[in-house]
Amino acid sequence: MQEKIYLRPLCLSDVNKKYLSWVNDPSITKNLVIGTHLLTHKDLVKYVVESPKKGRYNYAIITKNSKKHIGNCSIYAIERDKNKFQLGYFIGEKNFWGGHYSSMVIFNLLKIGFIKMGLEKCTGYVHEKNIMARMTNKFSGYKEVGKKTKSKKENNITDIELEITKKDWLKNSKILCSQYPKLYEV
User: Fold this and answer.
1) Looking at residue 38, what DSSP letter applies?
2) What are the domain boundaries of the chain?
3) CA angle, 118 as apex, 115 and 122 as ends, to 5°?
4) pTM over 0.70
5) What is the pLDDT of residues 73-86, one digit of tens each?
6) Which residues, 6 or more positions from 128, have their beta carbon under 8 angstroms from its beta carbon?
């Protein structure tokens, strides 16, 4: 059964064996910026402590009814002068892959960025071959606006550039809230 989620600030008590296992599982991190190199408990503590100093807002993804910590997400690369930001997330608990979990995380991060922070545009990139993420981004209201290819050792990797404006998110959020009222709310 699909369960609603909420976001709460990530804290040091979240740095535990479960979180460490998520960030050291290549099947979870293969499409993330952190990649597939091994991280230690000390690395995660440093990340949680130093992120706010660097303008990164980290959140734990929590299921509303069962109160399970299923992943983490963040808002970062905030450019106040351009009124834009980026977001990132991962669902660490694999039994929560699929359904609306990723799109609910994106929805809630965009709500924070657009409504609470007053920003106007969210930009980002997704690997061209990450079809599931591209579908989730489209469902969430993002537009694919360009491509960027970078060389990495033996092969080229193409990233799709994404963006969504506050105006477009507000339109899309009305649709999501009316079609799935048990999962989305502004």
Assistant:
1) -
2) 5-179
3) 85
4) yes
5) 999 999 999 999 99
6) 134, 147, 157, 158, 159, 160
